[in-house]
Specification:
By secondary structure, this protein is an alpha/beta fold. The chain contains ten helices and four strands. Helix 2 runs parallel beside helix 10, helix 5 packs across helix 6 and helix 9 packs antiparallel against helix 10. The longest helix has 28 residues.
Amino acid sequence: MRGLVDSAEIVVADGMPLVWASRLAGTPLPERVTGADLIWSLSELAALRGWPIYLLGGPPGVAARAAGQLVERHPRLVVCGVDAPPYGFDASDGGREEVRRKVVGAGPRLVFVGLGFPRQDRLIAELRRDLPDAWFVGCGAAIAFAAGTVPRAPRWMRRTGLEWAFRLVSEPGRLARRYLVHDLPFAATVLTSALLHRLTPA
C-alpha cells in the first residue's frame, strides 16, 4: 500500500485526521484536499485547456450522470468516456484488460478513478504505463458526489472535520465497519504519533 502512495507524483490529505496530525507534529498542511472537490476544479481546468476526461467508477449509470453534471457546469468540457466496471472486475486478467482497453482507446488526458483505495490505485499503476501523458486521480466517491446520487455533508461539517459522521449516518451499512473498526483506531494512532513526535526532543 505504501508503495502505491509513494509512486504518485502528487499526494494530498483527503482526511481531516491527516491535517490535524500535521498540526500536532508542528508541520501543518495548508488544508484538506478531497477528491470530491478536485473532480470539479480539475474538470474546470480540463475544459479551459481542452483536455478530454474519463470517468471510471461508481454503480451503473452514475459515471454517465456525473459526466452530465460536469458538462452542465463546464460546457466546453469534453468527456471522452465513462465506465462502471462490475465489482470484482479486477480479480481476473480479462476484467482488467477490458477496462484497460476502454480507457486507452478513449485517449483521455485526465482520468478520474473512483473505485476506492487500494483498488483504484492498483489500476492506476497499470494504466499509467499505457497512457504516460495522462493524469490519473484516485477520487473515491467523488463520481457519485458529482452525479448527485450520494449527498455531501453541509459545508460547515466539511470545514470542522465532521464529514465522516455525515457519511456514516447516510450510509451506515457500507461505512460503519470501515469508519469505526478500521479508520477510528488508525486515526487515533496517527494523532498520538504526531503528538509524541512534537514532544520528543530532537
